[in-house]
Amino acid sequence: MSEITGMLAIGNGEKCPYCDTVMTKDIDTLNHMTENHEDKLVEALFGATDKKDIEHIKTLKQKGE
Ligand SMILES: [Zn+2]
Fold first, then answer.
1. Beta bridge partners of 22
2. Residue 24 CA to ligand 1 centre (angstroms)
3. How confident is the model at residue 1 (pLDDT cuts 50, 70, 90)?
4. pTM score, whole prediction
5. Domain-wise residue ranges, the chain
6. What pLDDT is recorded for position 65?
7. What is the pLDDT of residues 42-54, one digit of tens each?
8. Distance 26 CA to ligand 1 centre (A)
9. For residue 36, how far is its CA from the centre of ligand 1 (angstroms)?
10. Cα 58 to Cα 27: distance, rounded to the nearest angstrom
11. Please, which residues bridge with residue 15 across strands?
């Protein structure tokens, strides 16, 4: 069964597009993204490029909405 990581599908052995971390089966791609590249993730998923939009989406996410 393949893992679904939204629009950011990075396979095992592939490099993260935002840093040099190579994804392995021990690394949760989505987790890595949220912890290290949250702004980039929000941008990729929601098309938000404005800092204010990104902060807004983060706030919504934290509320679980
Ligand atoms: Zn990374």
1. 15
2. 12
3. very low
4. 0.57
5. 37-63
6. 58
7. 887 778 778 888 7
8. 14
9. 6
10. 22
11. 22
Task: Report CA(20)–ligand 1 centroid distance (Å).
Answer: 6
Distance separating alpha carbons of residues 48 and 44, to the nearest angstrom: 8
Residue 32 has a CB neighbour count (10 Å cut-off) of 19
Ligand 1 center to residue 56 CA distance, Å? 22
Tell me the two tokens of residue 35: 């912890």
- DSSP H helical ranges for 1-65: 29-36, 38-46, 51-63
Task: Using the mean position of ligand 1's atoms as its centre, give its distance from the Cα of residue 22 in Å.
Answer: 8
pLDDT tens digits along 16-38: 888 999 988 888 888 888 899 98
Residue 19: name the closest of 6, 3, 32 by CA.
Answer: 32
Residue 57 Cα to ligand 1 midpoint, Å, equals 20
